[in-house]
Amino acid sequence: MAAITRSPRPDWLKVRLPTGDNYFRLRGIMRDKGLHTVCEEARCPNVAECWGQGTATFMILGDVCTRSCGFCAVKTGLPQLLDQDEPARVADAVEAMELRHVVITSVNRDELPDGGSAIFARTIEAVRERMPDTTIEVLIPDFKGSRSALETVVRARPEILNHNIETVPRLYKIVRPGASFRQSVELLKRAKQMTASIVSKTGMMLGLGETLDEVEVVMRELVDEARVDAFTLGQYLQPTRDHLPVERFVHPDEFRELAQLGREFGFRHVEAGPLVRSSYHAANQVP
């Protein structure tokens, strides 16, 4: 995957603007509950489609991250006070939106001893109490490698535990400063060791300068060592001029080839395409 001269977005990356009655209804619910969504904070290209279908990814622990990753549009700065009522408000919104599958993610909160894992667990429990038939996916940070923090989340029994690898090891210093590829693989591996029935999931972005060989090596490691079940693969899109540039736009045919390769390697479910993001078609990944 050699880098090419940067150019305007190709036709297959055209995204429609968020619109529609259901989109505005969901946005209204979020505002009424004082909640954040990664759909908006991270400028997800699928917000129109997902919100139009009545699904959304909640972002807990505030909207300011203690890390500054080169790809992410979420605000970086000093941590905020924890909102102890947030789990109940998320459950209220899930009920109001009548979701059959909910995704809960967060900013990094490296200043907290537990990384925010207790709030994750309380949010899972609140949603399950209010909406027992709703399946739950969590997209968690690495908790700085804390085994006890991971155990706190796993004990709350989400159906899917997701932690994104994001890129290949060689690019970590510029893409995920403060994170470790080995630590992230170990987190995914530990999750399956703690509860074999949990669906483990991870995802990567393409277009940051990685090679095809590097992507294949990572995919094999995720299956063989970490026993990851579900894998997402999408195109990196530069959110602002202050973020890392796009080195290459990957054609949809290449995504299809990588998806087939992933299935051959042993992933139970693969979502791959230019506009695929971590939570895209998430409900389809529940057994």
Walk me through the structure.
The protein is an alpha/beta fold. The protein has a single domain (16-285), classed as TIM Barrel. Helix content is 36%, strand content 15%. An eight-stranded mixed β-sheet has the order 1-2-5-6-7-8-9-10. It has a two-stranded parallel sheet with strand order 3-4. It is globular. The two termini are 34 Å apart. 46% of the residues are buried. Mean pLDDT is 85; it is low at 1-5.
| Side-by-side strand order of the widest sheet | 1-2-5-6-7-8-9-10
Radius of gyration: 18 Å
The CATH superfamily is known as Aldolase class I
CATH architecture: Alpha-Beta Barrel
Instruction: Please give the largest β-sheet.
Output: 8 strands, mixed
CATH classification, class level: Alpha Beta
Number of strands: 10
What number of domains? 1
Report the helical percentage: 25-40%
Q: How far apart, in Å, are the first and last alpha carbons?
A: 34 Å
Order of helices and strands: HEHHEEEHEHEHEHHEHEHE
Please render the helix and strand layout as text.
Blueprint: H1 21-33, E1 36-37, H2 38-41, H3 47-52, E2 57-60, E3 64-65, E4 75-76, H4 86-97, E5 101-106, H5 117-130, E6 135-139, H6 147-155, E7 160-162, H7 172-175, H8 181-194, E8 199-206, H9 212-224, E9 230-235, H10 252-265, E10 269-272
